[in-house]
Design brief:
By secondary structure, the chain is mainly β. The protein is about 10% helix and about 40% strand. It has three domains: about 150 residues, no CATH class; about 100 residues, Immunoglobulin-like (Sandwich), CATH 2.60.40; about 110 residues, no CATH class. A hairpin with a 2-residue loop joins strand 18 and strand 19.
Length: about 450
């Protein structure tokens, strides 16, 4: 009997503990928000707002839509509601409802709420972007079940169906699925999803080019030169990048990898128009459209001074063979940029038997003694000339040669009759390279 009584007593104690636990649990539940089965005529939802793929600024505004009136239009539920709100006055008719009580509205609100009669009425949250993440636009809005039923009037605003169903209830219905109903007094989070905005994504293409002798050719291996872009300290040989509209950049192209290469200019091609933006650096540029930056690397050239002629030339004078080639040399002027002028050098280091130096010409056979100040003409020492006015015709290995132009020295040939019984033969001017014919024989009377 005693054991039986104790067993009953233990059971009573266990029941008391269980009842106490249930009472405590109910108290905790009542003290917090209670989730009930949904009564569409009087429901409440608490909504948090997050962002994904970026962080922008926005404002939120609540609107009420009469489902029966909105359904007279075509489109998704949100699109029908937008058309109804726009036609009837979004900020008048859409705000006159007495069916809902709305939570906080305004700038960058992190959470809000809606409560009221959802029967034949749907609350819509209008999100309007005031400052999107750089290069982004709204891709959509989703809750924990997926993307919601929304309508986007433009890429920076969106109307979100915040009714009794989770996710995109219309898509579920069209797919033969039963839309899932939210529980009353429940919390859920909507997430603004950002994506790259194609209208804001632009291409920056930097092309290094060199002149082949007939056309401009891109090179991407840094063989002629490199450049730096913006604040990077790395030397680049080729750049093709997707950037956001409004991106700022600068080009520094001061480095050439060959002694005879230099940067002539830097241009940008934007909307089909090519504009010079610098020589070896550009300063800060703002990218507003797809842009190609061309860096034009040109070759310098060497100016050679040829004593002329280089083949062996001889004269036979009274049985003596005299070599009339010039001796000596004039230093080559190296790495001249197209458009730069040079000064014709002195030929004092050159000598040529029987000839006098008169000037320089690109024509080795130039024979006139008139000075023309042209490349193919005769250029005096000290004359300033521009051998190559344009880099377009200067390719790798290009040189230009000026030839020394010589004038034969003239001599006076005097005939001394030495008391011959003849008239005096006039003097004759003869050039070094001319042949003189001896006069006829003369006679002389015997002198006693």
């Amino acid at each position: 009997m005693i054991k039986a009584w104790q067993s009953q007593k233990d059971k009573g104690r266990k029941s008391l503990v269980l009842v106490t636990f249930i009472i405590i649990l109910l108290f905790i539940t009542i003290s917090s928000k209670v989730v009930y089965a949904l009564d569409t005529s009087n429901a409440t939802f608490y909504i948090g707002i997050n962002q994904e793929g970026g962080s922008g600024s926005y404002t939120i505004t609540w609107y009420d839509s009469d489902d029966n009136e909105a359904n007279m239009r075509s489109g998704t539920s949100a699109e029908k509601a937008w058309k109804s709100l726009e036609e009837n006055g979004r900020d008048t008719w859409g705000k006159l409802t007495e069916d809902f009580s709305f939570g906080p509205e305004g700038y960058d609100i992190p959470s809000t709420s809606v409560s009221g009669n959802f029967t034949s009425h749907t609350p819509y949250l209008y999100i309007q972007v005031t400052n999107p993440p750089e290069g982004k636009r709204i891709a959509g809005v989703r809750d924990d079940s997926g993307y919601m039923s929304t309508y986007q009037p433009d890429k920076y605003s969106i109307l979100v169906d915040c009714g009794i169903y989770e996710g995109d209830w219309l898509a579920d219905k069209n797919a033969g699925r039963t839309p899932k109903t939210r529980e009353d007094n429940s919390d859920y989070t909507i997430t603004i999803v950002w994506e790259d905005d194609p209208d804001q994504q632009k291409v920056l293409n930097v092309n290094p080019l060199y002149w082949t002798g007939s056309s401009w050719q891109e090179f991407t291996d840094g063989s002629y030169g490199n450049f730096k872009i913006s604040d990077s300290n790395a030397w680049q040989s080729d750049v093709y990048m997707n950037v956001t509209k409004g991106y700022t950049y600068s080009i520094n192209a001061t480095r050439s990898n060959r002694s005879n290469v230099y940067v002539d200019k830097i241009t940008k091609v934007e909307n089909g128009t090519e504009t010079k933006i610098g020589t070896t650096s550009t300063g800060v540029q703002t990218l507003n459209a797809d842009t190609t930056v061309n860096i034009y690397y040109k070759f310098t050239y060497d100016v050679i001074f040829n004593p002329n002629p280089t083949s062996v030339t001889t004269k036979n004078i009274y049985g003596d063979t005299i070599t009339t080639n010039p001796t000596g040399s004039v230093t080559t002027i190296k790495n001249v940029k197209a458009g730069n002028s040079i000064t014709m050098p002195s030929a004092s280091s050159l000598t040529r038997t029987g000839y006098e130096f008169v000037g320089w010409s690109t024509n080795p056979s130039y024979s006139s003694l008139s000075f023309s100040s042209s490349l193919g003409g005769l250029n005096r020492v000290g004359t300033t000339v521009t051998p190559k006015s344009s880099g377009v015709n200067v390719s790798n290995g290009t040189t230009i040669t000026f030839y020394a132009i010589w004038k034969p020295i003239s001599y006076t040939v005097h005939y001394d009759m030495n008391l011959a019984n003849e008239e005096q033969i006039p003097d004759k001017r003869v050039r070094f390279d001319e042949t003189v014919t001896a006069p006829d024989s003369v006679t002389r009377e015997e002198v006693l």
